[in-house]
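ARCHIVE RECORD
Type: protein–small molecule complex
Small molecule: adenosine-5'-diphosphate
Source of inputs: curated submission
Record status: active
Notes field left blank by submitter.
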Amino acid sequence: TTKQLIMSEKLAAIGEITAGVAHEINNPIAVMQGNLEVVRAVMGDRADEAKTEFRLLDEQIHRISQIVTKLLQFAKPEEYAGYVERHAPDNVIDDCLPLVQHLLNKAEIDIVREKSAKRLLLMNRTELQQVLVNLIVNAIHAMPDGGKLTFVTRDEDVDGRPGLAIVIADTGVGMSDELIRKVFDPFFTTKRSEGTGLGLSISQTLIKRQGGRIAVESEEGRGTTFTIWLPEAA
Ligand code: ADP
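STRUCTURE (tokenized, with ligand):
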């Protein structure tokens, strides 16, 4: 439809602008990082007096460079296509959990696993991890007072082809219907300064590129369920 056409042209334009801006930002970040090291070295013992400030500078520079990486991944996903492998979905979940263990402990979140997928999927390991960690971190953010995070894997066809489903369900704040409609939009966030609003839009791009789908179901005050479907690795 015309509306879809306009939307995809808009996205393409956003992509071009974003890639340009992200590349431009990379150089000054590298210069700042280098100079910070020099200042620290020149200050020698006195650098300790500004320990907190140095840490903050390090963290914020790191944060900017992460945002830039995310922007580039969103804008030029083809350049990040990388190398794909066959994975058992439960093994990928096993690999992701240690990365977020400290957050899970802090928020007192219990993990529930239902492993029934026998099929393997085909995807770049880092990208699949990125998608799952994105969803897990969002779920943790949605459960500030603790809760339950459930992972289900099962064999399930996708668009008439053999595939598998990975379900990530939280018992968090949930979303209104209006929010549900917007969550996959690039730059949509309700997290103010902490959010980029790119997590879900990048995740959707990566999953679609692998021939899969991602969907959300949610109820305010009850929780949210994201389901990813991926085709079985031939
Ligand atoms: P970000 O996390 O940077 O805001 P995302 O694209 O990952 O970007 O998410 C967009 C928005 O979707 C979030 O700001 C939040 O409002 C909503 N959201 C995502 N996952 C959940 C969840 N599990 N529960 C409630 N809201 C969520």
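CURATOR ANNOTATION: The two ends are 33 Å apart (CA to CA).
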